[in-house]
Write a structure and sequence with these properties.
By secondary structure, the chain is an alpha+beta fold. It has helices at residues 57-77, 82-98, 152-158, 164-169, 209-212, 218-226, 233-246, and strands at 2-3, 7-13, 16-21, 31-39, 42-50, 112-121, 124-130, 134-138, 144-145, 180-181, 192-197, 203-207, 253-259. It is 30% helix and 30% strand. Strands 1-2-3-13-12-8-9 form a seven-stranded antiparallel beta sheet. Strands 4, 5, 6, 7, 10 and 11 form a six-stranded antiparallel beta sheet that branches.
């Protein structure tokens, strides 16, 4: 494991790894990643992106990632089903972010973060998320974006009928409409949930928008993986972080990978 304030590289198992990088334009890394192996059949991945307009976003993301993965691990070891374990994990993430100290004399909002998490048990992945951090399935036969962004731009296009070109020009183009934070009403704090059956060989990838903004097409993400001579998870994570930085590194970049 390599870890400092701005760069994180994790590999708790040969088939599970991740990397997080400050990028080229931010003065600090406000993303966070947590990975955990429970047993030979069960892995947990959590990726968070602190909201830059909020107070202490780096603490919000780290608190959320840590609380989420600990709660999920406890629930799974207690025999709780993955869907319920995921809900408990994200609930604990919300509590942790709500406990980040708030200074009412500062202009920034309450601490906030996005979150995307996955529980992999055998060939079944349970995914939960709030915000615009994403999960993908990448494989030689088919690559998919598994999550749907809680974002202004997606809602504007899908609900309001604004064209993608028009939406991208809006000052709200990069705004999220849901997040984890103290100012979120309880009835809006429930995560999105989905279950994905892993069809065979491939990669479950979780990432923040520091990567996905540069690679919106899942097929191209898999193309980038194919450029690595020996595509093992940590090498892939490093490669994708490097690619995002080469494209400009406008944001923090975090990638978590599970090799199916």
């Amino acid at each position: 494991m390599h870890k400092d304030i701005d760069i994180i590289q994790l590999q708790p198992a040969p088939n599970l790894a991740g990397a997080s990088d400050r990028g080229r334009r931010h003065h600090q890394n406000e993303d966070a990643i947590a990975l955990q192996i429970i047993d030979t059949q069960t892995s947990i991945l959590v990726v968070c992106d602190g909201v830059s307009s909020s107070q202490q976003p780096e603490l919000a993301s780290q608190s959320a990632a840590t609380a989420c993965i600990q709660a999920i691990e406890t629930a799974i070891r207690s025999g709780i089903e993955p869907d319920a374990a995921m809900i408990q994990g994200i609930e604990q993430a919300s509590i942790a972010v709500s406990n980040v100290p708030f200074d009412p004399y500062l202009p920034d909002d309450y601490s906030a973060t996005t979150i995307v998490a996955a529980i992999v048990q055998g060939n079944l992945a349970t995914i939960g998320w709030i915000g615009d951090s994403r999960a993908y399935w990448l494989s030689p036969t088919k690559s998919l974006q598994l999550t749907q962004d809680d974002s202004w731009i997606r809602e504007a296009i899908e609900v309001d009928g604004i064209t993608p070109t028009e939406a991208k020009k809006s000052p709200y183009a990069h705004s999220i409409i849901r997040w984890v934070g103290a100012d979120v009403p309880t009835d809006e704090a429930q995560p999105n949930l989905m279950t994905f059956t892993i069809p065979g060989a491939g990669y479950l990838l979780l990432c923040t928008d520091g990567l996905s903004d540069y690679v919106p097409d899942p097929a191209y993400l898999y193309h980038l993986i194919q450029q690595i001579p020996e595509p093992e998870p940590l090498a892939i994570a490093r490669h994708l972080v490097r690619y995002a930085n080469q494209q400009g590194g406008h944001d923090n970049i975090t990638v978590g990978l599970y090799l199916g």
